[in-house]
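Appendix C reproduces, verbatim, an entry submitted by the partner laboratory led by Prof. M.T., so that reviewers can inspect both the input and the predicted structure.
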Amino acid sequence: MAVTMIITKKAKQINLLTIIKIKHNCMKHDPITIKEKLKSYIQQATHVDIGKIQDDSLFFKEGYLDSMGFIMLITFIEDEFDFKTSDADLVEENFESINAITAYILRKGDEQ
C-alpha cells in the first residue's frame, strides 16, 4: 500500500513537471513572446530607441547590426530559445528583421 502511494505521488510529480515543461516551451515559442524578447535584445545591444525597432525593420540595411552584432544575435537566439543554428541557416533572410527571426525560431521549434 505504501509503495503504491509513493509511486502514485511520483507519477503526479512527473506529470506536473511535464505540464510545466510543455507550458514553458509553448511560451518560449509564442510569436508575441519571441518578438518582445528580440526587440528587447536588439534595443539593449544597439541602444537604438525601442520605438524605431519595427517588426519589419531591416537590421543590416538600416545599420543596427554589423557582423559582430550578428554573431552576438545568433548567440542570444541559441541561448534564449535553446537550439543550435546550423551553417545552412546562416543566411540574411533568416535574420534580417524581427519578423524573419521569429519565423526562423518558430520553424526551428517545430523541428525539435
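Residues 2-28 form the longest helix (27 residues). Additional entries are available on request from the coordinating office.
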